[in-house]
Specification:
CATH class of the largest domain: Alpha Beta
Shape: elongated
Strand content: 15-25%
CATH topology of the largest domain: Rossmann fold
Order of helices and strands: EHHEHEHEHHEEHEHEHHEEEEHEHEHEHH
Helix content: 25-40%
Radius of gyration: 23 Å
Low-confidence stretches: none
Structural class: alpha/beta
Distance between the termini: 10 Å
Number of strands: 15
Largest sheet: 6 strands, parallel
Mean pLDDT: 94
CATH architecture of the largest domain: 3-Layer(aba) Sandwich
Number of helices: 15
């Protein structure tokens, strides 16, 4: 995979796929600029090397429709404030008017295209749309690691039409994650939580080299169900139960499951939440979070680790009554001597909410991409970079 350091960008039009899908309020104003800041190294490098910098990103889920609050205008203003530089906001992302605006750009100028997902062709990986994007520039740069597991036009299709390179953020993420996967310092403990069924593939792959795999969230309910436990009315993935049963039989005791939980009749309401042992789980309750005995068990399994990878919350931490387990483990990880790597998304959000993001070695910008990489799959947008040029 070649990076922007491998190409002369002087005077070139460089189209950069960034991830500016930031949290916004109902007026479209930016609530958290971290994703914008994460691509500054690439943007500043291109400016310093006299490129014409054309940025493109999606924002939200407009599903192929133009939605006023999902326009990139306030993203452009926020970026301009950070760079202390005027950003040329272009009101579309393809077409002759866009090309005309780009032709007027001078070296060191920075432009931001309109929301890519205003076109349904973006998520469809439409090659005609990808070719239109490619026609805007001389060079393409992927600096959106968080979207690199997506087969989208601006991530994968575009590389068929234009010389393509990795930005500094993608290079950094890939270097760190590759090192974890290829040569983790032992003992190596993985903590996998959340709800998505595709995390079964992550656990299947991690069994090959992790010493322990701690499971939480709805994913843990699926494994408990597979293990023959009564989980009451708890949510679980019925289609993954058999796969979980097979993994448990193959794990040689590596997979660690909850032994108690905070449970209630409704997770959303959280009324009359109480601690229950998994072996005595009432039929009318659902699991909302790991309990104190499970927290103690998980800490015992983690404490001697030299490498820890964490992806996904351990309970319904978006509800105050069920955030305790995720927060307890986050605090514990922040005090370890181990190298700690956090997947983006909810795990990263938990660390940041507690002000612990500077207490761990690395927080990835990509939740889904991080976990797909851990599952052993090649990320489509990264593969596309490796096969271009």
């Amino acid at each position: 995979m070649q990076t922007i350091k491998d190409i002369d960008v002087n005077g070139k039009k460089v189209l950069v796929r960034v991830d500016f899908n930031v949290p916004i309020d109902d007026k479209g104003s930016v609530l958290d600029d971290e994703r914008i800041v994460s691509s500054l190294q690439t943007i500043n490098y291109l400016i310093e090397n006299n490129a014409k910098v054309i940025l493109m990103s999606h924002l939200g889920r407009p599903n192929g429709r133009v939605i006023e609050t999902l326009k990139m205008n306030k993203i452009a203003k926020t970026l301009g404030d950070i760079l202390d530089k005027e950003i040329i906001k272009i009101d579309d992302c393809i077409g002759e008017q866009v090309k005309a605006k780009i032709q007027e750009m001078k070296d060191k100028d920075v432009a931001l295209l309109e929301n890519l997902r205003f076109y349904k062709e973006e998520e469809e990986n439409d090659l005609g749309f990808a070719e239109e994007l490619a026609s805007l520039a001389d060079i393409y740069v992927n600096d959106a690691f968080a979207n690199s597991h997506r087969c989208h036009a601006s991530m994968q299709g575009i590389t068929k039409f234009i010389p393509s390179y990795a930005g500094f953020l993608v290079e950094k993420e890939m270097a760190i994650l590759s090192k974890i996967m290829q040569n983790p310092e032992k003992p190596f403990v993985a903590i996998i939580g959340g709800a998505k069924a595709d995390k079964i593939a992550v656990i299947r792959n991690l069994l090959n080299f992790a010493d322990k795999i701690i499971v939480g969230g709805i994913l843990a309910n699926t494994f408990l169900k597979a293990n023959g436990a009564n989980i009451g009315t708890s949510k679980f993935d019925s289609e993954s139960v058999n796969s979980a049963k097979i993994l448990l039989s193959q794990s040689k005791g590596k997979i660690i499951l909850p032994i108690d939980a905070f449970a209630a009749k409704s997770i959303e309401k959280g009324e009359n939440s109480r601690i229950v042992k998994i072996i005595n789980m009432p039929d009318d309750l659902m699991i909302g979070d790991i309990g104190p005995d499970t927290i103690a068990l998980y800490k015992k399994e983690i404490k001697d680790a030299k490498t820890v990878v964490w992806g996904g919350p351990l309970g319904a931490f978006e509800h105050e009554k069920f955030e305790g387990g995720t927060h307890e483990i986050a605090l514990f990880l922040s005090g370890l001597k181990a190298k700690v790597f956090i997947g983006g998304g909810e795990s990263g959000a938990a660390m940041k909410t507690l002000g612990l993001d500077n207490k761990v070695n690395f927080i990835s910008t990509g939740g889904g991409a991080f976990l797909e990489f851990l599952s052993g799959k090649q990320l489509p947008a990264i593969k596309a970079l490796e096969t271009t040029n």
